[in-house]
Every structure is written in structure tokens, then in C-alpha cells.
Amino acid sequence: MVSHSSSVIVRHVRLLATPATILVLVAAVIPLVVLSTTVVRSADIISIWQNPAVQKALVFSLWQALLSTIFTILVGLIATWYLTRYQFRGRQALITLITVSFVLPTVTVGAAFIAVLPSWLHHSTFAIVLAHLFFNISIVVRTVGPRWNSMSDQLIDSARTLGATPLQTWRHVIMPLGKSAIYSSAALTFFMCFTSYGIVTILGGPGLATLDIEIYRRAVQLGDLSGATVLAVAQMLFITIASLIWSRSRSVELMTFRVAAVSQHKPAVVPKLFIGALTIFFLAPLLALSIASIRTGQNWSFSGWKVLLGIQNQRGLQVDIWQALLTSGKYALIASCIALPTGVAATYAFSKNGSTNGRWSSLAILPLSISPVVVGLAILVTYDFAPFEFRSSWFLIPIVHAAIAMPFVVRATLPVVQGIPPDLRSAAATLGASPWRRFCFIEIPLLRPAITTGIAFSMAISLGEFGATSFLTRRESQTLPIVIADLFGKAGVIPRASGMAASLLLVIVTGIIVLSVDRKPHV
After folding, report:
1. Distance, CA of 352 to chain centre
2. How confident is the model at residue 437 (pLDDT cuts 50, 70, 90)?
3. ∠21-22-28 over CA atoms, to 5°?
């Protein structure tokens, strides 16, 4: 009886993949197919790739992504170890700070490092790598942390009792237990750095450009749509193939806001020094951003805030921050309302007998493996002719935001769904609980932490999304990241101070969202 009921549920559960499939098709697959087939045919592919600027952008994309990934993994693993194995004062505040860094809009991260670094480092690879480390270290902590949380102290003590040195224990015990999670975090970090757009836009200057920057420059500034499309398709194929290969060989790792320490050990001198340096590294850019927002040149002034809030007029500078904030909030709310139920439904469709359906899960994470700039360009081209002439419609933006956020919802909920004991469902069914009652009263409470994580990720990602939005936004529907980028694109100390103020405002809004999720005590 229970077996027959389970088979019926599985058949119905597969239908839950339909909303996620439609979302990915509308926001990614169809636009990318149209982009690949309608524009590339008329382009001179060889001459485009022979262009020195394109070659330079490709080399720099690979170089800075590889360098950023290496530094992020090295620092991230040490940080993860100390955060999961030690208890110390301010530990939870540091975890929250690291979490906030990942969901911050990339343009605000770039602005923060403009504020904290000396001017001679502003347009350098060093600045970009530091910003990527700041932005992506949370991926390592949140992905590897749950694995190392489950590791018992007795296992390490046994290795040491058998004569293993600390290095041997780390190499033969600790690293193998987290190997899959480490590889997953490294792959995701590389993808994020390779497709970096907002950070490089602010910190790269005119001399440093990734493929995303070159795509935008050709499509918008030079009007070379075919050239931009060739680069976009090539980048899309490279990242998608690599992502699909990776997803077929690796399990989806838990990515959660909560990192609990299983040890009560107090950190020694070296861990304390590292923890102190890490805290300074994350606090300094945000503090510098706060200070820069109340300075104009060498003077202390609230002119940036006054212009931003409409209290003071500045010739040539029209900023409707309230409309931008309202628009960003509206898009974030709509995107989360789409991404959360779609992602949770897709998670149940992917989970069958505790395993992941590779084809469907690969489709769901497709938006994560494609540059938002490429997605924005593809949508701009696709929905500009009958019967889809609605590229200027505002609702395209939250749909794209939802498609980009949905993979994070799946990453947060899938391991939890797979971890629900089948016997729990069977026992409830035996007692007469319907599938709907089992879902509402048994599974939803177990999923609550993952659901709140998915909501926070969805809203934060929508608030900070810059790549696709830069193609799709209109003056009457500008989001806060677009306003910030425009302010930094203008000359003068007042626009710069206003850009810093707008960045700080976005940091505060994003931080409130994360803190609302992380407000419960951790164990």
C-alpha cells in the first residue's frame, strides 16, 4: 500500500520540475539558442578572435579567475577550519560578516575596495583578486563547513594516537572528508570570478577587462552586436560544458547560512592572529565605504548623502534614490516569490529514492553557470521581435533574477530533502497522513532553515544583480546597482561620494536581509 502510494507520489513529483523547466527555458535556454543561431551566422568569427583586445580580455579572464580561486580556497579553508572547530568571542559576528560579503552587490564590493585601497592600486589585478577573495570566501565556508562540522574530534585524536603528525592528519583525514565540497566550492568560485562583471567594472578601469566587459563594450558602446554575440556564445559553451561535466561527477553540496562549531577548543596564538586579520579584512572595506560616503575630496561633508536623498541639488546629477530602492525591492520580492517555490518544487523533482536526477538538476543550475551579461544580451536579442516584443517590459528583470537565484535555492534545499529519512514518510503514511499533510507537518518544519536561506539568497541576489540588469533596465526602472554604477561613471567628488553613500545604503539593506535569517542562536 505504502509502496504503491510512493510510486504515485513520485510520478506526480516529477511534474513539479515543470515550473523550473519553463523558467530556465524562458530566461536562459531559448534566448541563448536564438542568440547562437540568429546573430553568429553573420559574424566573422576568426577576425573577432584575432582582435588583440578580445585576446587580452580572454587571457585576463582566465588569469584573474585562476589566481582569485587559488587565494580564495587557501584562505577559505583555513577560515573554515577555525570557524568550525573553535569557539571564540565574536565568532558568530564574523560568520555573519562573511555571509554578508557573498550576498553584497558586486558593484558595492568594488566601491568598498576603491574606498579602502590607495589610489595607485585601484585599477590593478591585485585589487580585483582581493575583492574576489572578499566576495567568494563565503562559498568555501558555507560549502565545506557542513562537511567538517560532521567530523568527530575522536577521529582526529585517533589519528594522532597512531602517530600521525598534524600535517599527516590534515592530508589523510581532514582533507579527504571535505574533498568533494572543496572541489565544488573551487569550481563555483572559478565560475563566479571568470564571469565577474560588477567588480571588474569598478576596479578594472580602462586597462583591465574580462570577456564580460568586452561583451558589454561591443554590444552597447561599439554597436557590434555580432561580435558581442560570438564572445557570449563562446563563453557560454565553455562554462556550460565545464559545469555539466562537473555536475555529473560531483554531488550537490549543502550551502547554508548556518555554520555550527562541534568543538569547544579555544584558539591558540596563531588562530587568534588569523581570525583577527580576517576580521580586519572584512571590516576595513565596509568602514572605509562608510567614511568615503561622508567625504568630498579632502573635506568632511554630507553632500553625497544630501544629493542622493534629494535634499541638495547638483547640476548634471539627477538621482531618484527612492524610486530605485522601491524598484529594487519590488523586483527582489517578485524574484523570491518565483524562485523559492519553483526551486523547492524542482528539488523534490530531482530527489528520487535519495538520489539526484542528473539531467534535471543540470538544467536547474544552468543559469548559475552562464554569465548574467550573456543572459541579458540574449534576452535583449530574443524578445525584440514578434511574437515576443516585450524586451522593454519590466517583468523580464525579476524573471531573470529568479532564474539566477533558483540554483541557490536548489543548493540550499536539495541536501536537506535528500536527508529526510524515508522511514519518517512511511510511518506517517502508515498512520493515515495524506501526502499533503506529510509535506506540511513533517517536511516543511525540517526544510525551514533551508527555505529561509533560499529566501535570503533570492532577495539578496536580486537586489545586487548587475550584469543582466544593465542590459534590460530602463530609466524609469533603474535598480540601485545601476544607479551606483552610473554615479561612479560620472566625474567629480560629489558623484563619487553619492556613489559611496548609495553603496552603503545597499549594504545596509542586504545586511538586514541576512541578519533576519541569521537572527536565531546557533549551536
Report:
1. 27
2. confident
3. 85
DSSP state of 351: E
Strand partners, 295: 300
Burial 448-460 (b: 16+ CB within 10 A, else e): ebbbbbbbbbbbb
Q: How far is CA 170 from CA 42, 178, 183, 456, in A?
A: 55, 11, 16, 34
Q: What is the pLDDT of residue 8?
A: 46
- What is the spatial distance between Cα 116 and Cα 500, in angstroms, rounded to a whole number? 12
Helix (H) or strand (E) run with residue 228 in it: helix 225-249
Task: Classify residue 291 by burial, with Cβ atoms within 10 Å: 0-12, 13-18, 19+.
Answer: middle
Burial of 244 (0-12, 13-18, 19+ CB in 10 A): middle
Q: Using alpha carbons only, how large is the chain's radius of gyration in Å?
A: 24
**pTM metric for this prediction:** 0.79
Cell 573553535, located at residue: 86
- Residue type, position 319, single letter: V
Q: Report whether pLDDT(268) > 70.
A: no
- Is residue 317 a contact partner of residue 498, using CB atoms and an 8 Å limit? yes
Cell 580564495 -> residue: 72
Range of the domain at 59: 2-39+52-517
| One-letter amino acid of 514 | V
The count of structural domains within the chain is 1
If phi over 0 gives left and psi between -120 and 50 gives alpha, with beta otherwise, what is residue 432? left
Estimate the crossing angle of helix 444-464 against helix 91-103, to 10 degrees.
60
> Which residue's entry shows cell 567629480?
492
In the structure, what pLDDT confidence band is assigned to residue 335 with cuts at 50, 70 and 90? Answer: very high
The number of helices, as runs of H, and strands, as runs of E, in the chain is 26, 4
Tell me the CATH number at 7.
1.10.3720.10
Inform me whether the pLDDT recorded for 232 exceeds 60. yes
Tell me what the mean pLDDT of segment 207-216 comes to: 85
Q: How far is CA 71 from CA 40, 68, 134, in A?
A: 36, 5, 10
**Is 313 inside any structural domain?**
yes
DSSP state of 388: -
Secondary structure letter of residue 473 according to DSSP = -
Asked whether residue 495 is domain-assigned, the answer is yes
Amino acid making up residue 330: K
AA identity, residue 149: N
Place of cell 573635506: 299
Cell 522511514 appears where?
423
Q: Is residue 332 in some structural domain?
A: yes
47 in any annotated domain? no
* DSSP bridge pairs for 299: 296
Q: Which residues are within 8 A (CB) of 139 and not within 5 positions of it... i.e. 6 or more apart?
A: 72, 76, 102, 185, 188, 189, 192, 255
Are 29 and 366 spatial neighbours (Cβ–Cβ below 8 Å)? Answer: yes
The C-alpha atoms of residue 138 and residue 127 are separated, in whole angstroms, by 18
The CA distance from 37 to 49, in Å, is 18
